[in-house]
Design goal:
Blueprint (H helix, E strand, L loop, with lengths): L27 H4 L3 E10 L10 E4 L5 E3 L5 E7 L4 E5 L6 E4 L8 E3 L9 E4 L3 E5 L2 E5 L2 E4 L37 E2 L5 E5 L5 H11 L11 H5 L17 E9 L7 E9 L10 E8 L10 H12 L7 E7 L3 E9 L3 H9 L9 H14 L6 E8 L10 H12 L4 E6 L7 H10 L2 E5 L3 H10 L1 H5 L1 E12 L4 E7 L19 E4 L3 E10 L20 H5 E10 L7 E8 L10 H16 L10 H9 L9 H14 L10
Parallel strand pairs: 1-7, 16-17, 16-19, 19-20, 20-21
Antiparallel strand pairs: 1-4, 2-3, 2-5, 5-6, 8-11, 9-10, 12-23, 13-22, 14-15, 15-25, 17-18, 22-24, 22-26, 23-25, 26-27
Helix pairs in contact: 4-5, 4-9, 6-7, 7-8, 12-13, 12-14, 13-14
Length: about 650
């Protein structure tokens, strides 16, 4: 999404799509001004046929609409608007001065030079491409494929200068959880998190020969990327999930203990899932060009379409300089129609992310299924530059929209300008989940293998609260979940938003425990009384896990509680689930260069993970072992003579 892109590439790319385009919502800023309505029709001058998807913009503003299937349009123009700009890929753009007329019909001529050249901006690259020096924001010329080509059907992909893996990416700064006194702060409260974007993003960095920036490593998302061999909830259980707890020795600090708190959601067969009302919201702005961006999104959505059932419905909304609906709600049985719309997407222009989100939610609400699963699936690199751009503005927009009962799935793509911080925010605030697609196999995993978990919610606003027994626990530390922490009073507040749990999902959390009798991380206080002797029953309990959740469209939460008793076993005697989770967490601590990594090493992490992969149905645990060894090889060599 670069301001150097020709305006002709703005959402006029919608012209390649075969289905009807609808106008985008009028921006709030425009509504506040005095406006007048201009209508008309855009046609191909050579044939007289209406042109769908033509971008109609008020020059000098971000106010724009796209023409409908017959080429007609309707736009609210502020009194200060003097010129309309009509643009579409493959046609010469045309400007029309506005006087007193309220009907403007336009014929566009084919552009014989269209699709030959476009200006793009380098992402902090250094070097030379085709004889052109690239540094910082230098302009680079490249050829472009035609609008009707789709990823997977292009005989020769255009050359696209790729940025460094992390140059220009943005991540939220996270202050790592520290140790808490069980006597002074006995309650630890947090929202569950089933996102897994951080792991696939970390994998992308490592496979490209680069260690990820510490901010890109979120330990909870690495933990929750993997499948665990947890038992399913009993068939007769009222709750759609099971709580699992276990304790063992901590691998990176043997004097401490590691407690695993996990949830296993019930796996619902695809044919038993409720009907889906899905709206694909696809970013087709300039920065989405390339097979690892829009091309990957197209291939992933094609895989998802093959999973659709006749009772499911799909709509397709796109956004660049403006937003438009290019596929109205279509039954899952009409796969050819849906695939054709996906195939015809092309990228170019600026990004009106807020307008796209509003329109997608509008479409989802208009086709809301009371007995079904209603969801918007946004596919983007998150680089919004028109309309709502700040995190606060995007958060307000998403919080307003989630009240409709429509859930959100966020699929991120791209590198070099990837806005992880913004994408994670959208998912967190929009009753949703978040995945990063670094390759087509990841798209298959998210949209095919985890079809139910990604798209169907079993429980919402799921919160965990752990109460520690100070008779047995001196201190504790939650590993990860820093941006999911809640105040103790939030646990009983049903208005407080929390995470969603989908079909077959697992949630894994780890606590590092400093037991009573072990050296404390903080000196004992001189003026505080010693804790009273606890009753025998309480002394036997290490902690109690409490959980609250709501039905998918419920408003009142249910409460569950489960104590953990017994003593910690040696790590070698722990379950494979705990040992593998410990290896993943230890890997995250090393990548983050955590001050709490203790005696952890990459070699020890690889051994621990390698010994805990008997349950590895898709080979991802074996992949983790390879990534750990790869990360070890990428460590900078020690400086000779350094102290």
């Amino acid at each position: 999404m670069h301001r150097f892109l020709y305006l002709a590439l703005a959402a006029g790319l919608l012209a390649a799509c075969p289905a009807a385009a609808q106008t985008s919502p009028t921006p709030a800023a425009a509504v506040a001004l005095a406006t007048y309505t201009v209508t008309g029709r855009v046609t191909d001058r050579s044939t007289g046929q209406g042109l769908p998807g033509v971008t109609v913009l008020v020059k000098g503003t971000s106010i724009g609409v796209s023409t409908q299937a017959d080429g007609s349009y309707r736009i609210e123009v502020p009194q200060s608007g003097k010129v309309l700009v009509f643009s579409s890929i493959g046609f010469v753009s045309k400007e029309v001065e506005l006087a007193a007329q309220r009907v403007v019909d336009v014929g566009l001529s084919a552009d014989s030079k269209a699709l030959n050249e476009v200006v793009v901006t380098g992402y902090g690259l250094q070097g030379r491409v085709a004889g052109v020096s690239i540094r910082g924001a230098a302009k680079v010329k490249r050829s472009r494929h035609t609008a009707d080509q789709s990823y997977g059907a292009v005989s020769a992909a255009p050359y696209f200068p790729q940025p460094e893996p992390g140059a220009g990416d943005t991540y939220a700064s996270v202050a790592e959880n520290g140790f808490r006194s069980a006597q002074k702060e006995p309650l630890s409260t947090f929202s569950i998190d089933v996102d897994a974007a951080s792991y696939s993003n970390v994998r992308r960095f490592l496979q490209q020969g680069q260690l990820p920036p510490p901010e890109a490593v979120r330990v909870e998302e690495m933990l929750n990327y993997f499948q665990y061999d947890y038992p399913q909830p009993a068939a007769t259980a009222a709750e759609p999930f099971r709580i699992i707890t276990e304790q063992a020795q901590c691998p990176w600090n043997p004097q401490h203990q590691l407690v695993q708190v996990a949830l296993q959601a019930r796996k619902v067969a695809t044919d038993k899932l409720p009907p889906a009302n899905l709206v694909f919201l696809v970013d087709v702005s300039g920065s989405m060009q390339g097979p690892d961006r829009l091309g990957l999104v197209q291939q992933g959505l094609k895989l998802l379409v093959q999973q659709l059932r006749p009772q499911d419905k799909v709509a397709l909304v796109v956004y660049a300089g403006a937003a438009g609906t290019v596929l109205p709600p279509t039954a899952g049985s009409e796969k050819a129609t849906i695939l054709r719309a996906i195939n015809n997407l092309s990228a170019g222009g600026s990004t009106a992310g807020g307008a796209g989100l509003r329109l997608a939610y509008d479409v989802a609400r208009q086709n809301f299924n009371q007995q079904g699963n209603n969801r918007v699936i946004i596919c983007s690199d998150g680089d919004f530059n028109v309309g709502e751009q700040s995190d606060q503005a995007m958060e307000r927009l998403i919080v307003q929209q989630r009240e409709s009962g429509v859930f959100l799935t966020v699929l991120g793509v791209g590198r070099g300008n990837y806005q992880d911080k913004k994408m994670e925010l959208l998912a967190d605030k929009g009753n949703g989940n978040y995945a990063y697609l670094d390759n087509l196999d990841e798209a298959r995993r998210v949209l095919v293998s985890q079809f139910g978990g990604t798209l169907f919610t079993l429980a919402q606003d799921v919160k965990l609260q752990v109460e520690f027994n100070p008779a047995r626990v001196r201190e504790y530390r939650l590993v990860g979940y820093e941006n999911r922490l809640l105040a103790a009073e939030d646990f009983n507040n049903d208005r407080k938003d929390a995470g969603e749990l989908g079909s077959g999902h697992t949630v894994t959390a780890l606590y590092e425990i400093v037991p009573v009798g072990a050296p404390a991380t903080v000196d004992a206080l001189k003026y505080q009384p010693a804790p009273a002797t606890a009753p025998a029953l309480a002394s036997a309990e290490l902690l109690t896990v409490k959980l609250r959740y709501k039905e998918p469209r419920g408003t009142t939460s249910r409460l569950l509680a489960l104590p953990l008793t017994g003593v910690a076993r040696p790590l070698a005697e722990a379950s494979e689930n705990l040992r593998f989770a410990a290896a993943v967490a230890q890997f995250g601590l090393l990548l983050r260069q955590s001050e709490h990594r203790g005696s952890a090493t990459y070699a020890a992490t690889a051994r621990l993970a390698d010994g805990a992969r008997r349950f590895d149905p898709e080979g991802y645990r074996a992949e983790l072992v390879r990534l750990v060894r790869l990360a070890e090889g990428l460590q900078p060599a020690p400086v000779v003579g350094a102290r």
